[in-house]
Amino acid sequence: MSRFQIRGVIFVWLMIQATTGTAWAWYDKTHLAVAKAAGYQNWYNAAAADMTKVKAGAIEDKNHFFNNDRNADVTAKVVMGQIDRYNHAQDEEGHLYGAIVAALREFQSARSAGQYAEYHMAFAVHYIGDLSQPLHNTSHDRFNKGHHAVNDGIVESEVMDNIGEIQKEMYEIKLRPDHFDEDLAKEIARIANLSRILGLKLKAENRDMTKGEAYAQLGHSASLLKAVLKGLGERDK
Question: How many CB atoms lie within 10 A of CB 69?
């Protein structure tokens, strides 16, 4: 890539930041590491949803966060209520939780129709990764904006060599095939609240995550992703 092309990419990125208020979640390698830890066979697609923002802008951006300005508990009802907002560019609050369910529904629909469904799964994998980033579950306030980049990259430089650290934090999640969306919504809400509580703690203490806290958070995402893959028959292919 030439120097001028690099400048062009940076310019586009800055324009998106200025016009949409994009909040970037875990950086690329961190997303890839979560996918590998969970056993996602196409782990190399896990960062694609962030790349999509460059061209799709707000249409994609709002799928990556939930600005919980009221600091309210996230419930399964909240999760399900966001599903119809998937890909809605005007939803300033964001709808990360509903985006996970919606992307997985599109995956299942495309697969049932005999279509190539993998890209829908790749989007869902990314959103599940975003779910454990504390600052994607709290108000996008001054603290959030000032600390976001550091927390996105807290383990980025080492994470691909330390996937075992994520796996140490993983645990079993069960999603019943006949109650898949119901169980999924409950698990999304549970992890969202854990992430929100940590985000509020970081703000109260005016600090960034420790690496230990980051790996624990990534363990939540990897655990849910593993359960999703198993529940949809996408693991151990």
Answer: 11
